[in-house]
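Aim 2, interim progress. The first record below pairs a target sequence with its structure tokens.
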Amino acid sequence: MSVRFEELDWRETPMGAISLRRRVEPSLGVDVYEVKLDDEFLMSSLFTVAEVELARLGLASLPGTDLDVLVGGLGLGYTARAVLEDPRVRSLTGVEALGEVIDWHERGLLPDAALLTQDARCRLVAGDFFAMVRDGTGPDTESASQRFDAVLVDIDHSPRHVLHPSHSPFYSVEGLRRLQSLLHPGGVFALWSDDAPDDTFVAALKAVFTAPQAHVVSFDNHLTGGTSANTVYVAVRRA
């Protein structure tokens, strides 16, 4: 049996001290991987239903094949791996602001990391997703015209609860208009949120995109003995 708790990595970053921990969840008897930034929990492998649904819902309405997908916020890799499970996907670009997180995948510190690092369709890019949107550069500075069929984002806790104040403009009408430069006409933008559907953010989506939807994704929470929920927003760029 694994040791009950292990800190796999700890480093100082410009955003604070980031750590990767593995522990045994006694109620389930499984290993749980957790990421903390200073004293704040960023992500956990204990609850990943909505991260997978971000990929499924984001790709569900896209027609055709040879899809090029950008995932903003690599994290533990659940959304990215779910994207690669879709046989229509030609390429996946994962953008992660913290190079330490990419390093965890490349070093195999995370479960199933090889499904990303050894898939020829996948490349991992260290960079600030929000700066890419703001500056209109995308992940390839030498190819400013690059477009994607889907942009799936899981970085902040929600449009209102952001990890850094510089992220907030992204969730405005102007920020969402800038995001469109990364999408083909008819391309999909999808966003994970830890909060309930936000009418203000839905209104911003309606000002820019076609027929935005806020999907409530529910899952069993054994810690509370009840049900918890996240939100996945999905919107389509106008043709």
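The second target in this work package is listed in the same format:
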Amino acid sequence: MTSATIPEPVGERLADRLSTRHFRVRPSGAVRMLRRLGRIDRAAYRTIADMHTQPLDRPLRWISNFADFSKPWFLAAGVFAAFGGARGRRAAVTGLAAIGLNSLLVNQSIKRAGARRRPNRTQLGVPENRWVRMPLSTSFPSGHAASASAFAVSVGRVLPGLRLPLRVAAVIVAFSRVYTGVHYPGDVVVGAALGAIVGRATSTVAMRLRASSAEQRVSP
């Protein structure tokens, strides 16, 4: 299969690789499952592209663009640090640490290894009035979804009262990336899952370090 005809959804690409002559044993069950996931991913993308929700076009374009370089999360961290007291500062540091670790894992490692092409918005029917600038990076997984999830989960564990609004905000950012056509749904689902893992791990380490520091202060 030539590069011009390689299916874009990552499940189908993995299935193609498993089906090549380089593999002596062909895992037919895995190949069928991956091809099915690829078809589901493409179908979900088309379904969102076909949504008749023009009033959402402008706000979701703005949200998608504003979320570049994790701007909402840096802004939120600044607000927490400035007005949230000691707990707000802990939340800000934890959230920024989660974003940093997430960037190292997703943007510097997994995205480069995945090498998934971005969706063809014209071919797949995304209306042009939804479009934002198509990133030059690879598509899988979504860095926006991963960063949003990492920040929401990590900060939500330090500030439980903000857990729901932060997660809603993360979901909106992730959806905006599919709505504007720059990611397949599978990209944002996997990105959000990876971000949640990073966010939970980061906040767990931060809480343990704080508990250990508190124990040392009260020890005779």
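The CA atoms of residues 205 and 211 lie 10 Å apart. This observation will shape the mutagenesis plan for the next reporting period.
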